[in-house]
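Tokens as discussed.
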């Protein structure tokens, strides 16, 4: 399935049905009164958050959504049928923005959550509504009210427990494929991953979700290489897993570059809980690995994990640490490091 995280849609709710002008006409009833029914209400356009989706690709092929109008009223006090609603099914994490993309109208973060984007017009009154003591035979009715219409933007921000980030070709997709059932494209060249991937980790009877975003480059916070759109997908993550390629000549510079992009992007990414790991340790000799590990520990103030996804080395320790960190964050009454405004440490 292809991935799409932004879509522009046109929505229009249904018009209300017109009221009816009618009089009772039956044998042996000489002066039948008014019996015109009301018009039906127009259909709504509704956004529904469902669990089975993780992309907005359906909105690439259909951008216009129009609800049905209400039916007009009829005689014998028969009201018109209401218009059928149109339901747009979207994944968890979708934000609704106005046409100018300047204001967030709503944020859907829970399965089953619904939002009425456009309400249908009310149906008009039939002439039976206008009977009074001075006018027993009104010949007037109301037209139905028009529906609402607008252009909106839908923007998806993935909901995951842990976000994997790093430079291109740092081993993020390989790690995801080794610890989950996800099968992202893996190759020995940068920018193999072109859109985010999700995977579910099952460890010690527990589950959590990993999000692998494409590699970041310098200027990502300004949109270089679509970096700002990729960074948006880890805004909702509880923990960031920062992978640094052990085969790089300058791991400290690589680490600093990613940290700079997080700080420049904002939205709280720079103060999220972070775990730092050296990947591809099997491709570097032990002495170099230890030297690079020590250098990263000095600059980050953390204990650096050593990983080799290909050799399955260090993965179990990594998953155990992530599980413990997520458990601690879920415990009530214990403030997290992100709440205190500083990056956390972990053993």
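Sequence:
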């Amino acid at each position: 399935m292809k991935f799409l995280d932004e879509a522009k849609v046109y929505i229009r709710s249904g018009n209300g049905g017109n009221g009816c002008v009618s009089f009772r006409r039956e044998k042996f009833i000489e002066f039948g009164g008014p019996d015109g029914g009301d018009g039906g209400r127009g259909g709504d356009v509704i956004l529904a958050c469902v669990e089975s989706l993780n992309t907005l690709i359906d909105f690439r092929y259909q951008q216009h959504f129009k609800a049905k109008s209400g039916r007009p009223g009829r005689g014998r006090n028969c009201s018109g049928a209401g218009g059928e609603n149109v339901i747009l099914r979207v994944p968890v994490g979708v934000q609704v923005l106005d046409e100018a993309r300047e204001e967030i109208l709503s944020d859907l973060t829970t399965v089953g959550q619904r939002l009425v984007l456009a309400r249908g017009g009310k149906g008009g009154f039939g002439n039976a509504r206008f009977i009074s003591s001075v006018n027993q035979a009104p010949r007037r009715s109301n037209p139905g009210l028009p529906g609402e219409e607008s252009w909106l933007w839908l923007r998806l921000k993935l909901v995951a427990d842990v976000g994997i980030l790093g430079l291109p070709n740092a081993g993020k997709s390989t790690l995801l494929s080794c610890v989950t059932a996800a099968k992202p494209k893996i190759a020995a060249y940068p920018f193999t991953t072109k859109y985010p991937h999700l995977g579910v980790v099952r460890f010690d009877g527990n589950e959590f979700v990993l999000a692998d975003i494409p590699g970041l480059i310098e200027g990502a916070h300004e949109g270089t290489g679509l970096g700002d759109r990729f960074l948006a997908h880890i805004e909702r993550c509880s923990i960031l897993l920062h992978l640094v390629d052990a085969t790089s000549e300058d791991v400290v510079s690589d680490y600093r570059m990613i940290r700079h992009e997080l700080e420049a992007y904002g939205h709280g990414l720079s103060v999220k809980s972070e775990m730092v790991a050296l990947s591809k340790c099997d491709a570097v000799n032990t002495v170099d690995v230890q030297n690079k590990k020590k250098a990263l520990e000095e600059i980050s103030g953390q204990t650096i994990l050593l990983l080799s996804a290909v050799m399955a080395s260090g993965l179990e320790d990594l998953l155990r640490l992530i599980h413990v960190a997520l458990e601690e964050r879920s415990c009530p009454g214990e403030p997290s490091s992100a709440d205190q405004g500083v990056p956390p440490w972990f053993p």
